[in-house]
Give the backbone structure.
Amino acid sequence: MTESENLNQEEIIKELCLCNGLSYEMVGQEGSDTSKLEMFFLGYPRIVGLSLFPNLTSLTIVAQDIKEISGLEPCLQLKELWIAECCIEKIEGLQECRNLEKLYLYFNKISKIENLEKLIKLKVLWLNHNTIKNIEGLQTLKNLKDLNLAGNLINSIGRCLDSNEQLERLNLSGNQICSFKELTNLTRLPCLKDLCLNDPQYETNPVCLLCNYSIHVLYHLPCLQRFDTLDVSAKQIKELADTTAMKKIMYYNMRIKTLQRHLNEDLEKLNDRKCKLQKLPEERVKLFSFVKKTLERELAELKGSGKGHSDGSNNSKVTDPETLKSCETVTEELSLQQKILTKLNALNERVTFWNKKLDEIEAIYHIEVKQKKKSHGLLIPLLLIELETVGNFHFEEGTRSDDWFNFCYELILSRFCAWDFRTYGITGVKVKRVIKVNNRILRLKFEEKFQKFLENEDMHDSESYRRMLECLFYVFDPEVSVKKKHLLQILEKGFKDSETSKLPLKKEAIILSNSLSISECPRIEFLQQKHKDEKKNSLKHQLFRHGILLITKVFLGQSVQAHEKESISQSNYPMVNSVFIPRKYLLNSVMGQRNCDCSVRQCKWFVFDHDLVLPEYVVEFEYITMVKAPSLFSVFNNVILEESKKNPEVSVFSKDLKFDDEVIKMEPRIKARPKLISLDDKTILSLAKTSVYSHIVSLNLHGNSLSKLRDLSKLTGLRKLNISFNEFTCLDDVYHLYNLEYLDASHNHVITLEGFRGLMKLKHLDLSWNQLKKSGDEINMLCKHTTSLLTLDIQHNPWQKPATLRLSVIGRLKTLTHLNGVFISEEEATAAMKFIAGTRITQLSLLRHSSTKEERSRILSIWPSAKILTQISKLGPHLHPSGNWYLKITALNLDGQHLFEITNLEKLENLKWASFSNNNLTKMEGLESCINLEELTLDGNCISKIEGISKMTKLTRLSINNNLLTGWEQHTFDNMLHLHSLSLENNRITSLSGLQKSFTLVELYISNNYIAVNQEMYNLKGLCNLVILDMCGNIIIWNQENYRLFVIFHLPELKALDGIPIEPPETESAKDLFGGRLTSDMIAERQGHSNFKQIQELNWTSSSIRTVDLIPVDQFRNVCNVNLQNNHLTSFSGLIYLPNVKVLCLNYNHIESIMPRLKPQTHLTNRHLLYQKVPSSGYGQQGISKTNRDIMSSENLPPIMHSLEVLHLGYNGICNLIQLQLNRLRNLKFLFLQGNEISQVEGLDNLVVLQELVVDHNRIRSFNDSAFAKPSSLLALHLEENRLRELGKLQSLVKLEKLFLGYNKIQDITELEKLDVISTLRELTVYGNPMLDGSPVNSDDRAKAEFHLAELQAKKNLLIPVTHSPMDGRSFGQVKTPPIKITNVILPSGFSHYLGSDVTLTPEAEDKKNKNAGILTNNPRSIHAEIAFRQLRGISISPSLLSHQNIASPTAQIYQSNQDKRRISGSNFPRSNRM
């Protein structure tokens, strides 16, 4: 290296020529032809000899010992320059190389980008592997396409690359970039295709270690083709990034809306409390106002009558008794007038007193509202930061159940010294909220540096280093209140140099303390001094009562005590990490001269390395003072607490109320007059004490019960009218009184001024204490019809926009001199005129609040696009609009402009994003031409109906929160095929009807409305894309038990409800609780209406129904047929409450009992708990244990379902008839129990009217003594396919006509002889029993049987007709006159009396296939039984007997079944009222 440095210029040029294959001797002639030179690895210590190569276009110098760039002035044609792996410390000497297109200066020692301004043709710039800290000096490089700054010390991007719009490739790997916000600056590079932040050849940027790093970059830079050396051009990758980002935006939008809702709820509670507290003062004011106006009326009448007395006394000069009497009367009236005036003064004082109390309550209310908003105001920005950092900044609010919350609480209490705060009247501190902040970026920095300290020490010392971790309070600048913006910057970015305050010590060190007094006392002292200087009258303790602490985790490292008279800086303490000053050495007057043990431990700390101070907790606290804080929940609280008692006034205002009573009782006490309910001509003339209408100048109707005024237009001379304290709701009767100058309509119920007209001379108008709301409409009426108004009082009305009401009134009513009793100054009038001028949409306002960007910025934010775009790029008033300037406007943000109407937007045809929040709009007018709108925001207005937007088919987001909406036009949303977000919070909406076709809807926010009915939720069932729903604050939440699970069940696609994510256990609970419930809502959904009284039949098969919950039951009183086949019912559930059900089909369920058996309380599921609470669900009744149920006599159970006649319980798995409790169905006539597990026929004793019982295909072996112990009305008994071996115990069935015993185990033919006692038996079936097996059938037998069958058919008219139909004809089919019924046995001698000696019976054909299909099968009749009995009697059987026709039983004909499906077909029901 040393030899190279000593080479002279000639030797260097020789080396240059040698390395590039040039002859040194010929270089003078050949140099001009050389365009490219290269020098690698030593031999070229400085740039010389380039003047020999005037046409040089490319120069490459690599791995040389060059320390500066020089000697390039002759290279005017140079296009490509490489000076890499050298020792260059500064970019210089390139000013003349203006044709340079590629510059490579990597692997040098360059610390600053400079002196490149003139290289305007530069396209490639590589400065990687240097020591550059800032991106700068590139503003003029408009053609730059490739920039490599990898391997430097850059920690921010900022707006330094904004001018390099042609940039396509950027490498920033191996730097110190740690924030996602820095990366979003790259979104302003429209041509960027290749970005590298994590090149494997370099160290990792801290930002690359953050969660969702790739998602963040790909979402914000969708045009990237390569990212971190990987190909990301695939469409699926971009879609994944977009989808993930949109989910994040939706999630945080939901959380922010939830916070805003909580704030609104808190403010609503404060308002309710304020209203309650103001109730007493308002009543007092009303009372005194009433008395006052009554006295004023008396005084006016006295003065009117006194004039007559005065005139009479002056004209009389004779003193006589009448004159003396008149004088005495005048004297009395004068005395009375004086008393009235005295009492009026006292009343005015009391009114003033109570008005002052109202103002005090209002002031305290505003203080608490401000504090609430301030408290919530920190949370929303924190959520926005969390969104912007894609979750790498995270916070959570603590509760008493969190260990860290208790840690912070105890830490603050342990570091609070009462002695230090006694001067300020503070006795304690109360923690209001603790927010834990987890900033992954700052934490990584902290842990990295902390780990470096540990690595430099041995294990023993490393433990001591760990002990140097401390929790300290950050000391805010006392001269700067803890502003939200400053605190958020610290939480997000840490304690950067730029964020430090004005204090000199903070230039290098962060000031911390381990004492609350050191942190807080300077702030308190400063605020008190400021309050003293400004001479404010506000409460002293309110200044500092609320505060914020920032608790930090600090590594103190090597720490020393500060030296006296030496400034605290790193230079004065070079080998130290932190410096501390004990409290006793602090010179601050606030701290000094206090004796307390705490002072020994209290210190002030100065930490030099900002990365070693990690903000962890934000604590909001309140000081407890000796003077109690004025609060809506404290000062006047006793009045509220005592309201429930008899004497609420005793506590706070007892003396004042007594004083009020004394004033009321003062003389004179005016006797109450009878109240007028209506007004007629006679009454008017009587009150005015005149007989001529035109003479009436003043009319006082105060204190009556009038709601109408008639024919006042006759009073052409009326100048003064008082109608206070009446019942008026409008003033449309006060019109065309052209001479009226004074009108008092206070203390009424006036809701509108519509009809109030023709009062052009009116000067004084009092409308206080009414119910006026719509400021715009009412001001318009006054402006139009009261052109001479001087004074106006509109206090104590529930105005919709009270904040701007005064300016609106003054600006519109220009003649006013006093408003609400307050003089209107010139300054106020000027401000009002300016305010009114700003309430109109003009060309200037459009330019100021609009943007022309074609695409929505890809920013992780929940704010409306119009707001984002207009903040990023406004047109501004400086723009000179061309002819079509309005067509370029795509975004318009007119929030908070106090607009009363939307106008002048007709030409904004390309408007995509618009926001009109926080105005005075009452209608959605003026947007008809903006059919390309994609987002529309109208929050915080007075709109009552959604209308005029049905043509906005491109709308994706619509927000109309905080309005007066009651609904929307029909089909408003039907054509909005792109609408995915709809927000209608805080309105008065009662129905969701009209949203059924909003299939693209993803988010629906409709909290705090008036939705009350469950059926409204069914309007959302078809919205399969809906994942976020907020219904909080609607009446349905209180009306619907288990509301949350109800909604989750009916909207299974939901991911979040009411701001809370839906967890899988909730979904399971919802299915368990509401799954399989047949409810009124489900029926209404299918029917399309809720008129349940029209329903006669319910057909709800195969629907997985487990319970029936039909409420109100009275609405279903006309239901007579119910078919719930093939469901999951275990009991009759709510069906038992349907009063008129006649036919009930419950085949293929799991019926165990009519009434459900309850589990013990400890084993109840959510479903059973609900059933207990809802009586109609069938649950909630006292369960009976199995043992007691078996023992209990069925007579003790009360009867139910008195109208039920036909019951189908086939194929339910029933094994115990006693548990079934069928005895309670006292009017049952037909009972079908086929296909169960029944082994004993029991528990049917009370069914005295039962006519047919079907227990086919069960497990009955025999009958016990109690089976048919009582006489019954049974006509038909079906016992086929059981296990019967004997036929005893049937003797009580004295009316039995049909008995079916096929396919049992009867072996002995003598068992049939036991039926001899049943004289009514007409039909008997015994085929398929063992007693018939093995009997041969020859041809003679067949022939005889055939002949006998023909003979029987000839006598068919002799058969007994079938008895009652088991159902009325409307249910399952019409009943016809039955055909001939022929049994399948010929009874032997001894049984012939069953049908008579003249009747011979033949068998019906067997149809084994249809044995058990449907509700009832066609009962098969076996030919084998006929053959067997003929053989017994010696009768031959004809062969043709076996080829017989099937003749169905009457029961089978009535109950035709679907043989294939074994279910009742829906077609069996009549069309009318079919479900």
